[in-house]
Amino acid sequence: MTDLLMETCLDKEQLEFTKTIKQSADNLLVIINDILDFSKIKAGKLMIEQINFRPVEILSGVEKIFRQKLIHQGLKFNCRVDSNIPDVICGDPYRLNQVLVNLVGNAIKFTRTGTISIDVRAGESDKTGVMLLFSVTDTGIGINADKVADIFQSFTQASPDITRKYGGSGLGLAICRQLLELQGGDIKVTSEAGKGSCFSFNIYYRYQNIAIAEAALQKETVNKDILAGRRFLIAEDNRINQKLIVKVIEKGGGFADAVNNGAEAIAKLKAGIQYDIIIMDLQMPEMDGYKATRYIRNELSMKIPIIAMTATAMKGEKIKCLELGMNEYLSKPFAFDDFYQSVYNVLPNWLQNAETKDAIAQIKNTPSLFNLSFLEEMEDDAYTIDILQSFLKHTPAELDKLLNAVSRKKYETVTEIAHKLKGSTGLLQISAMCGLLKSIEEGSRIANTGLQSMVNDLINIYPPIEKALIKHLELMAERGKTF
Ligand code: ADP
User: Averaged over 420-441, what is the pLDDT?
Assistant: First the structure.
């Protein structure tokens, strides 16, 4: 629902608030999953992800979560990131986020006046990766020397009046310590009562994994166009979820037929209605998703792709679904991009079986450099041409200015230009540029790490986009002549 809200007409401030709601909800979901997983730590079953991510984006996300709170409490916030930290590293961004959110949350909770700082430095490195050293420092109440050693124990606070004054359960730091241990790191604290505390931890990260980066790049190129013209059968008993999925599919130009349980889905299939994909909730009254899938595969012998959808965040669930013959698995709430990706993942194989070559070609053409659907909604070709011409005219100069600002370390100017360009590339849905600009904008607010290389990437990817836009303008001009 937040994703849908973000696609409606919001002013700048509303969009910013909505993004923060989304980010907080995402983080909350991760934390809830982590707490669920926490019991797994003891059983030795908690998995640490290995994915590529930009540390600067995590730091900027943490800053955003706490921005309002910091302003409200009149606290200053500093984030210093060593310039020699790799732009992209490979590890678990969610666990890093969780530890930082926990430590910064504590720092704010226990500080009345002064400054909260996050510092990130690079420690020892080798051929495969680098040790990152993080510290979160505050000017708060501090911890008595005799208690410092105990606070990492679960359900332990520095003194009995802490719960009364500040709330909390005494679990946060215990979770942090265990999460860090699982990532081969550790955590320490130095503190002085009345002066403040400094929590520092380290994690060894591998350098960016190219294979994962390529897969991610492919993922980024799948957009809502993948849904166009496809017929979906949705079996889902929750009306709100039904509505959401139908809306997402229809926005992408697909057709959706929603039913309330597995039995109704089977009735539709038996009636001979043709669908391309089934979205199957797992927990449903009358006939659940497992039973329905078994029936579709064994009794009806149908190979139609089935994407399972469930609110259960348990990891074993996915394997169970795949074993039953489902083709993909999405846990609710899902990000739109994950949904498009699942559809993309299940379509090609099935289409090859059905030898629908045209459709395969269509899917292969899907990843596009830009998408003018926002402009086309205006149904005014002159307007579209005007916007495109203006973009082509001004962008090279803006890119030059951006490069110049980065090399002269004028970070405020970098933020300003990146923000402006993000707006125009967003309107034309040039996702490759828009994504980079988002990272550049966020990075320039808090640190200079990786800015130069991101701006270089941006400048390198512009020429093919420019070419494609010019081509599009030419086509539009030709079409204009024939009308
Ligand atoms: P909670 O904050 O829920 O009580 P934590 O495990 O996060 O649990 O912290 C345990 C205890 O450590 C806190 O109750 C507090 O006494 C102490 N503590 C943690 N962070 C700080 C800090 N930044 N400044 C002072 N005391 C802290």
Answer: 87
